[in-house]
Amino acid sequence: MPVDPPGLTFPFRGDHPTAPPPEYAKLREHGPARATLPNGHRVWLITRHDDVRAVFADPRFSRAAITAPDAPKLLPVSTGSKSLFVLDPPEHTRVRKLVAAAFTTRRLEHLRPRVAELADGMADRLVAEGPGADLIAHLAEPLPITVICELLGVPSQDRTVFRDWTEIMLSFTAHTPAEIGAAVRSLRGYLSALVEAKREEPDDGLLTVLIRARDEDDLLSTDELLSFGQTMLVAGYHATAAEIVHAVLNLAARPDEVERLRQDPASIPTAVEELLRYSQAGGGVGPVRIATEDVDVGGVRIAAGDAVLPSINAANRDELVFTDAEELDLTRAHNPHVAFGHGIHHCLGAHLGRVELQVVLETLLRRLGAFRPALPAEDLVWRTGTAFARPQTLPLTW
Questions:
Q1: Which of 183, 240, 260, 261 has the fewest CB within 10 Å, making it most exposed?
Q2: CA pair distance 137, 389, nearest whole angstrom
Q3: pLDDT in tens, 204-250
Q4: pLDDT computed for residue 282 by the predictor
């Protein structure tokens, strides 16, 4: 495949949202190639595992540069953002250091009993409704948003207030730029009011910690504070919900593996790593970066100012790194997947996502046994044009 193949547009359309599109394998064979985004911007697609890791780790590829109004980007919401997601050092280093203590493996492990308590309570309602109950409404959606709200100190009852805003913000074709802008302003307004309320009545949530860092130590700007809250509510909620759904769908298609895990729950953490590698929950959408100087990647010269889009989904199916990469092997021992990124932007909440996925699978296996979708795969209605691919509903039977 030439580096600038005619008519290559991204995101690709695969045979099914849980399966990678065939273009990934072709691109891994030939290396980086130019593609056109829905907004007409041109990007270099990076699909090989080693190349994706190299781009993630190379400071010559800037995330901050995509916040410029005319920069090539996939998600319009990144325009003008000051979130941790699109900062470069030294700003990224400063902000990440402020919040990193809340996301250590040790601290997040202390949350595991609370996550299990929440999941069990939600499973009670799922079981009470009986076969046909919607996994998304009862567990996949409310669990991660409740956990992130408790971590931040956001009233969990407000999740219905900002759920629609965050869904709109993750759109690349499902909503107009005007609708996305209105959603951003609404969420920022909500967070601004919440911050002021917490100044009057502080608690032990992460937002209160950051408010003190802003007000008492001058370590954080108001824009950075609000952007961090916005990022956590968006990424900490939707990404995990989508991963839960994909994990359940991929497991349910393999009833023998469901039974094996039910009999051996100690193997769930290994299985979760493989489910993360195999997942297509991100829909191929990743963080765009801008080259700040000429850089060679995968035998191709990326010019200064060019945009690159490293594909996590494609990298995690690289046959040169993963034996039988297209097979789901829940016992896979060597699993250097990049589901949570790599380098300085490695997902801050990676271990929290792992804990939630492990707890959800343990709960479903314990409470439901042999679960499976209550509808044929072709009858599931999927959300389209948004950063995380999942069905609108997922009724289960068991």
A1: 260
A2: 16
A3: 899 999 999 999 888 888 988 998 888 888 877 899 999 999 999 99
A4: 86
Structure-token match 């950051």, residue found: 210
Tokens of residue 183, six digits: 């959603």
Torsion region of 343: left, alpha or beta (phi above 0 gives left; psi -120 to 50 gives alpha): left
Q: Which helix (H) or strand (E) holds 228?
A: helix 222-252
Backbone conformation region of residue 80, classed left if phi is above 0, alpha if psi is from -120 to 50, else beta:
left
Coil, strand or helix at 311 = coil
* Distance in angstroms (rounded) separating the CA atoms of residues 48 and 207: 38
Nearest CA to 394 out of 244, 288, 278, 286 is that of 244
List Cβ neighbours of 113 (8 Å cut-off, separation of 6 or more): none
Please tell me the class of the 77-287+323-397 domain.
mainly alpha
> Is the torsion defined by CA of 58, 64, 66, 70 positive or negative?
negative
CB count, 10 Å around CB of 99?
A: 17
- Report the distance separating Cα 372 and Cα 395, nearest Å: 9
Q: Which residue has the tokens 């690159």?
A: 308
**Token pair recorded at residue 28:** 């891994």
Q: What residue ranges do the domains of the chain occupy?
A: 77-287+323-397
Give CA separation, 164 vs 31, 134, 170, 186, 187, in Å. 38, 19, 10, 10, 10
pLDDT reported for residue 358: 98
Dihedral sign, CA of 164, 166, 171, 177? positive
pTM exceeds 0.70, yes or no = yes
The residue written with tokens 């824009």 in the block is 223
Phi, psi of 308, rounded to the nearest 5 degrees: -125, 145
Q: Where are the beta strands (DSSP E) in 131-242?
A: none
Q: Read off the tokens for 254.
A: 């393999």
